[in-house]
Amino acid sequence: MIDIEPLIQAIRARLIVQVPALGGRVFDRATEGDETPYAAFDTFYAVAADAECIEAEDWTIQIGIYHSMTSKAEVGKIVGQVKAALHGWADTDALTMHPLRVTLVRVMDDPDGVSVHGVVQVEALVESDG
What we know:
Elements: H1 5-18, E1 26-27, E2 38-48, E3 56-67, H2 72-86, E4 96-97, E5 101-109, E6 116-127
Parallel strand pairs: 1-2
Antiparallel strand pairs: 2-3, 3-6, 4-6, 5-6
């Protein structure tokens, strides 16, 4: 299995720089009481994508954008900025990867009835450096 940590850290660094509305709040795992808005890595998984002599995995990563505001339009703006920052981007200095593909964008009410939650899902083909 390919180590996902370099990919997560590269995405995190990209969002901190490219999405100022998040105020640098991009977490591997959010905790109760974190100031909003923020982004957090919700779920991720990989499937094998090996070819001939190349070990690779196709990672699907879901990034949640959380905000205490009730304005879906405002959360939608931040979600759009996250999408723009990640779609077609690759950090080939950090790891051997192909450009990210944004495969899902969604804005919805949270079950608490107060907060709004956005989702940006990306896919990343990552090759082993070994």
